[in-house]
Design goal:
Oligomer: single chain
Shape: globular
Strand content: 5-15%
Number of strands: 11
Largest sheet: 8 strands, parallel
Structural class: alpha/beta
């Protein structure tokens, strides 16, 4: 059963947090259009000596969504989420947890490790914690450590990605877990959202299509590459962060590398430091899931969500006809 915070969305979609790309403009647009918007806490970067930008972002998001809700009581905004990278290389984690707790962030998404203290912080301020996983073993550990729900990151997802088919991953988790389950992996149409539900997921986790939106914090060249590319242009590699991820081959070539001859990365060297010597994932090497063949143009986020909602309704009607 879904918790109330996830049960009344316009369509069953959570927008995934994308490094660099997801920021307040995109999150606010997503929430106003009726789906959960999210961003990684690490996207809010400030220079030494400046006040925490994450604090300012959360203030702005809360205030703008509150104004929207007061002006549109019959069409309130969906809640928002903040993604915390809980890997040991994230030196900001404790500070960002404290900021999110103070702002009473309603949905916490954790990645690259399950940490009971992060889940406890979410619960203490009235929020829920969702943890992304790539296999059943990690899913069990996440629930044991206090996560409320799971995000099954299957083959075809953008950014950090698992190797398993969504059919296999969802069915293994659903064999023992009845709580909130989201599915990530090449979901770019309303029909795919419905397929995720039919498979056993409660909600779809959608990222790459939102790169090609007006509000996304992405270069115009990146947005155009999403529009112009398809599944064959997506390459899986662990070189850039130490963890397997999906990236656009044209961006790899632009960085002077051959996408067909990439070295393997080492998870022990994973780093989210801006000064990492590797070609930088998501700023130089652009992430993408395999579903981008459905993305035809750069549009406002609300227009993309309108399309997903229309396609979702049409797919439901067609199956029930």
């Amino acid at each position: 059963m879904l918790p109330p915070i996830l049960a009344d969305l316009r369509i069953p979609v959570v927008a995934s947090p994308m490094f660099i790309v997801s920021g307040p403009d995109l999150v606010i647009a997503q929430c106003k259009a009726g789906i959960v918007g999210s961003f990684p806490a690490l996207n809010a970067r400030e220079k030494d000596g400046e006040p925490p930008l994450l604090d300012a972002w959360l203030t702005r998001i809360a205030e703008e969504l509150d104004r929207h809700n007061q002006a549109n009581p019959d069409r309130p905004a969906a809640p928002f989420a903040v993604n915390q990278i809980v890997h040991r290389s994230n030196a900001r984690l404790q500070r960002d947890i404290e900021i999110c707790h103070r702002h009473r962030v309603p949905i916490w998404i954790t990645s690259l490790g399950a940490r009971p203290e992060v889940n406890a912080a979410a619960h203490d301020c009235g929020g829920i914690a969702l943890h992304d996983v790539i296999n059943d073993s990690f899913a069990r550990k996440a629930i044991e450590k206090g996560a409320d729900g799971l995000i099954a990151v299957a083959a075809g997802a953008g950014g950090h990605v698992g190797p398993q088919s969504p059919f296999a991953l969802v069915q293994e988790i659903r064999a023992w877990f009845a709580g909130p389950l989201l599915l990530s992996g090449a979901i770019a149409t309303g029909r795919a959202v419905l397929a995720a539900q039919a498979m056993g997921a409660d909600l779809a986790y959608v990222g790459s299509p939102f790169i090609a939106t007006e509000e996304a914090n992405a270069p115009a060249e990146y947005k155009r590459m999403i529009v112009d590319s398809g599944a064959e242009d997506v390459v899986t590699s662990s070189l850039f962060t130490g963890v397997s991820g999906n990236y656009l081959a044209p961006s790899i070539r632009a960085a002077g590398l051959d996408p067909d001859r990439l070295e393997r990365g080492d998870v022990s060297d994973m780093s989210f430091d801006e000064n990492s010597p590797r070609p930088k994932a998501w700023s130089q090497i652009w992430g993408s899931g395999q579903g981008i063949g459905a993305v035809r143009e750069v549009v406002p986020a609300a227009a993309l969500i309108d399309r997903l909602a229309r396609e979702h309704a049409e797919a439901r009607a067609a199956l029930c006809a």
